[in-house]
């Protein structure tokens, strides 16, 4: 029997099986974090609130750059409500309905300067977002990390917002909006990544959706804030959104620690241990075991130490070596371009609908709440590819429907301008419906 056991026993112990099953970084962090407690979850939600300040800077121009209504003063007989623009009228023949300081358009007399100059600040903001997205992306993975990158972005965005309130002309205003867009380009990304890396896998979906919910709350706060300052300077809007954002950045600096995962990937094991101990204390736990798993976890794929891991462009280099990653990135960028055009284009142009600006923005923001709830319910149940295809297809079908309803509404408004006798005298089509002269 002993001879049989000896014959079947391996001559050498296979240590490779043990090494091949070394724990990953995510598994190691999950073990030391334990169950996500209320304190840890509240800290992640506090971090997600950065999205609220981000959305305020994105959509604030809907009110600050709005074109105010005007009226005739009665000093010129050529002035009438039907006049398309007061640009051809003497300055004494018309006046703004509200004080000129309520909008940059009226304060700096941009109404007659052309649409290019009126839209310059908003365009500068999104150009800054594009530039920041390209130039700052790798800093969160390399030199600064998630926490420092987020703090730098929020502080820079807030300072730019405060300075915007003191802009002397439209050119300085547009330049500062570019800086604000450049700085805020990383707020959403760093917030989402850092908040999800501070909780267990079970709560990542909830924390992720909480960020989008906070974005909607920030969007919803703008109509209330704008209505409060409807008769005073537009500069108050920037001060009341930027100063609280600066105060919020102080809370983040004092209460939120760096991502343990990023620290492990960068080889800063002692800092990762301290971060994990802080997280464990929030859950009412204390780590009494050794941190031997941190030394055993495999970090070769993430650290990229042998291929220029300390370089700012290490992530780009790693992606360039993976053609499948480039194809996926190209597909995501294409979809994001279409989604972004609709998502940002509609709220930023809601003032052109002719309806109440405050209510229109509020309804637009409220429409995002059901989508956040639906996202929370579907996340983890339906794969991402199907979700993107299905939801973008629905959105694409709804946009033409909006145009049809708006056209019908415009026709109703046009018909309201005619008297009963004039309406009856209009020509009729084959179905017996009156046709406007413009349509004939």
TrEMBL record:
It is found in: Membrane. Belongs to the major facilitator superfamily. Phosphate:H(+) symporter (TC 2.A.1.9) family. Residues 40-440 form the Major facilitator superfamily (MFS) profile domain. GO terms for biological process: phosphate ion transport. Keywords: Membrane, Phosphate transport, Symport, Transmembrane, Transmembrane helix, Transport. GO terms for cellular component: membrane. The chain crosses the membrane at residues 116-137, 149-166, 206-225, 237-256, 329-346, 358-379. Signal peptide: none annotated. PANTHER family: SOLUTE CARRIER FAMILY 22 MEMBER. InterPro entries: MFS_dom, MFS_sugar_transport-like, MFS_trans_sf. This is H(+)/Pi cotransporter. It comes from the Eukaryota. It is a multi-pass membrane protein. It holds the Pfam family Sugar_tr. One of its GO terms (molecular function) is symporter activity.
């Amino acid at each position: 029997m002993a001879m049989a056991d000896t014959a079947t026993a391996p001559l050498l112990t296979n240590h490779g099986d043990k090494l091949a099953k070394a724990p990953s970084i995510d598994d190691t962090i999950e073990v030391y974090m334990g169950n996500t407690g209320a304190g840890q979850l509240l800290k992640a939600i506090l971090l997600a609130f950065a999205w609220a300040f981000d959305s305020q800077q994105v959509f604030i121009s809907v009110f600050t750059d709005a074109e105010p209504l005007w009226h005739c003063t009665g000093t010129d007989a050529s002035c009438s409500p039907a006049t398309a623009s007061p640009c051809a009228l003497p300055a004494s023949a018309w006046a703004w309905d509200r004080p000129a300081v309520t909008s940059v358009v009226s304060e700096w007399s941009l109404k007659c300067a052309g649409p290019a100059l009126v839209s310059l600040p908003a365009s500068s903001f999104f150009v800054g977002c594009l530039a920041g997205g390209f130039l700052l992306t790798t800093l969160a993975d390399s030199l600064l990390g998630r926490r420092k990158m987020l703090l730098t972005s929020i502080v820079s965005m807030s300072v730019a917002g405060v300075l915007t309130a003191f802009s002397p002309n439209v050119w300085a205003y547009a330049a500062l909006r570019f800086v604000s867009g450049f700085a805020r380009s990383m707020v959403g990304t760093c917030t989402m990544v850092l908040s999800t890396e501070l909780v267990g896998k079970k709560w990542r979906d909830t924390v992720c959706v909480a960020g989008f919910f906070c974005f909607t709350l920030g969007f919803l706060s703008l109509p209330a804030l704008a209505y409060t300052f409807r008769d005073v300077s537009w500069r108050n809007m920037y001060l009341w959104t930027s100063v609280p954002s600066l105060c919020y950045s102080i809370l983040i600096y004092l209460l939120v620690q760096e991502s343990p995962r990023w620290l492990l990937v960068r080889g800063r094991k002692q800092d990762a241990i301290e971060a994990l101990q802080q997280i464990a204390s929030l859950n009412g736990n204390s780590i009494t075991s050794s941190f031997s798993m941190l030394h055993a976890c495999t970090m070769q794929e993430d650290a990229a130490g042998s291929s220029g891991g300390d370089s700012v462009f290490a992530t780009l280099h790693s992606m360039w070596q993976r053609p499948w990653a480039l194809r996926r990135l190209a597909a995501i960028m294409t979809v994001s371009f279409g989604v972004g055009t609709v998502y940002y284009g509609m709220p930023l142009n809601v003032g052109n609908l002719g309806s109440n600006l405050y209510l229109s923005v509020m309804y637009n923001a409220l429409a995002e709440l059901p989508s956040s709830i639906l996202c929370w319910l579907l996340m983890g149940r339906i794969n991402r590819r199907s979700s993107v295809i299905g939801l973008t297809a629905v959105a694409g079908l709804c946009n033409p429907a909006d145009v049809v309803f708006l056209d019908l509404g415009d026709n109703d408004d046009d018909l309201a301008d005619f008297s009963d006798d004039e309406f009856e005298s209009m020509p009729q089509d084959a179905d017996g419906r009156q046709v406007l002269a413009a349509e004939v």
